[in-house]
Each structure stands twice: as C-alpha cells, then as structure tokens.
Design goal:
By secondary structure, the protein is α/β, with parallel strands linked by helices. It has two domains: about 1-125 and about 300-329, Quinone Oxidoreductase, Chain A, domain 1 (Alpha-Beta Complex), CATH 3.90.180.10; about 130-270, 3-Layer(aba) Sandwich (Rossmann fold), CATH 3.40.50.720. α3 crosses α4 and α3 (about 125-140) packs across α10 (about 275-295). The protein starts with a strand and ends with a strand. The strands form three sheets. Strands 3, 5, 6, 7, 8, 15 and 16 form a seven-stranded mixed beta sheet that branches. The chain has a six-stranded parallel beta sheet with strand order 11-10-9-12-13-14, with helices on both faces. The chain contains eleven helices and 16 strands.
C-alpha cells in the first residue's frame, strides 16, 4: 500500500486528500520508485482547479516531478535497477500517471539518473524547470554567447533556470520582475540586470543595457498587452517564446516591429521536448552535465511535508516564492 494524494472534485487546496492505494507491480516499460521528494508545479494547481489542458478524471491524481529510489522495474526495462537514485521528468498526462505518492510507477522514458551531488529535494526541483528553459533557449532559440535574453517572471523556478542556462551559454540574462523587491535575489542567482516593469521604463532600460542593440531572445510566461513594449526592444531577427498566459489577454504585437526586424513569435511548451525522444535525450544530457558541474543548481524557496500538501499549494497560489517549492517524504 502507498499513501497517495487525490481529489474527487475541482476546487481549492482543501479538496486534496491522502488515501491508501495498492500499487501494482510495474508493467512493461515502467519503473517503480519509492518517492523521497516532489516538486510542485503551476500545472498541478491548474489541474486541481479545472483550468488545465485536460479535464480531471475522478478520483484524480496529480504530480509531474519526483525523485527517489528504484524499487523494481517492469519487463523490458534495462536502463535502471533497484537501488538506483532517479528523478522523473514531466512527459505524461495526469490521467496516465501522478507522482504525488509514497510509491509510484513511472514510464521509463520519463525516468533519469540524477547526479550524486544533488539531494533528493534538489533533484525533485530540477528537471521541470531546467528542461523547460532548455527547450526554448537551446533547442529552439539557439541562444549564443554574447547575446541578450529577456526573461519574464524571472523569479519563478523556470525563470531562474533560464538565468542559469543563459549564463552557462555565455549570454546575458536580463530579468523582468514587477517590482524591485526581488532584484537582489535575482542578481544573486545570476541575472546580469533586473528591470522592475512597474517602476522603470522597460524600453529605456533595455536600450541602455544593450547599447541600443536590443534583445535577441525573449522567454516569457506573462504575455498580454505589454508584449508591445518588449517587441519594440527586440533585436533584428529576435525570437520570442511565449510559454504561459499569466496575463490571459491577447498579445499586442506591432506589425511594423515584426516586419521591420523580421521577428519570430511562437508558443512553446515543455512537452515539445519531453514527448520527442531525440530532443529529450539531448535535454537530459545538457541538464545532467549542468547539474553535475554545478553550473545549474536549483533554487529551493520552501520545503513542506507530504501531509502538508494543501499548504504547499496555497503557498504557490500566493505567488511569493523565489525558486522551487518542494515536498519531502
């Protein structure tokens, strides 16, 4: 038996329940893991409240990220053995698997060895954020040394991951935050500069920081009408990756900026990487090397106990964290 977190109707954190469930032996292509830590993600909040890309199937399970120890492997699995320390990368739907449990079965393609220099909490905090940022900045964005990357909602876990990856590539990460409250923390984690969008003139600051060159890549989960300001300071041939909709209003993009500077705007999501075997293999290698070398290091904001999962969700919904929220078992 395993303690598992489920919910039977959409709603606030109070709908989360801890139940005992029998965990079957891993099927072909599955790995069974004794979970030591979980990473909390915005997608899980959206799923619990009924605002995700798929509808919950009740009783619904959730959880994309976990780290722990392999207990058993299913038929056909040769990559892992009992006793291996592993992490789980989001590459499945909550209707297929959910990691919020003491013991889980996970598809082998989503399982990865993590470097020995990471604790279980750090490992559980790493893969979603770093693979998400990797896909836009490296796989599709081709960010180069010396270029400028403008990073929206930079104090989020993915924003911090993007800062670190930009530095790993030799680029210049410019962090966006609504106020200057988190500026010192963002510089501490590697931001070359921080712009408080409610307090400063974004265009003037970017032009000053880039000597009028503009930013080569934008990685933004906010969107909305303020996109027009960002478009105005993008460099010739600039690439804009929209990976969220914190502002659900339509993007405002001046057509003359698009035409005159040959700009590219595209939507982006993690599953573009994690459901493509070759791209996922490249991402695993890049992130593993970065974690092992210390160039990539997850920033953990707060740790909760498994029994306190509802408060972990409440804390994320308060939007005050800098870095990752983790639950340990």
């Amino acid at each position: 038996m395993s303690k598992v977190i489920t919910f039977s109707h959409v709603g606030g954190p109070e709908v989360l329940e801890i139940t005992d469930v029998a965990v079957p032996a891993p099927a072909a292509g599955e790995v069974q893991i004794a979970v030591k830590a979980l990473g909390i993600n915005r997608a899980e909040i959206m799923y619990r409240t009924g605002h995700y890309v798929i509808e919950p199937q009740f009783p619904a399970r959730l959880g994309y990220e976990a780290a722990g120890v392999v207990e058993a492997v299913g038929p056909g699995v040769s990559e892992f053995s009992p006793g291996d320390k592993v992490s789980v990368i989001p590459s499945f739907m909550f209707t297929e698997y959910g990691m919020y449990a003491e013991r889980v079965n996970a598809p082998v393609h989503a399982v990865v060895n993590h470097p020995e220099n990471l604790s279980f909490a750090e490992a559980a905090a790493s893969w979603m954020m770093f693979v998400t940022a990797y896909g836009a900045l490296v796989e599709y964005g081709n960010l180069q040394a010396g270029q400028y990357a403008l990073l929206g909602a930079a104090s989020s876990s993915v924003g911090i991951a993007a800062i670190q990856i930009a530095n790993m590539l030799g680029a210049h990460p410019i962090a966006l935050s609504r106020t200057s409250k988190k500026a010192d923390l963002l510089r501490k984690v590697g931001a070359a500069a921080v712009i408080a969008t409610r307090e400063q003139d974004l265009a003037a600051e970017v032009n000053s920081l880039t000597d009028g060159q503009g930013v080569n890549l934008v990685f933004d989960p906010v969107g909305g009408p303020d996109t027009a300001k960002i478009a105005s300071v993008m460099a010739m041939g600039g690439r804009f990756f929209q990976y969220g909709a914190l502002d659900s209003r339509d993007l405002s993009i001046p057509v003359m900026d698009i035409l005159g500077k040959h700009l590219t705007f595209r939507g982006y999501e993690l599953f573009e990487i994690t459901t493509h075997p070759v791209k996922l293999a490249h991402a695993k290698d890049f992130v593993y090397q970065g974690l092992a070398s210390g160039q990539l290091k997850p920033v953990i904001d707060k740790v909760f106990a498994f029994d306190d999962i509802a408060n972990a969700h409440r804390y994320m919904e308060a939007n005050g964290q800098v870095g990752k929220i983790v639950v340990t078992l």
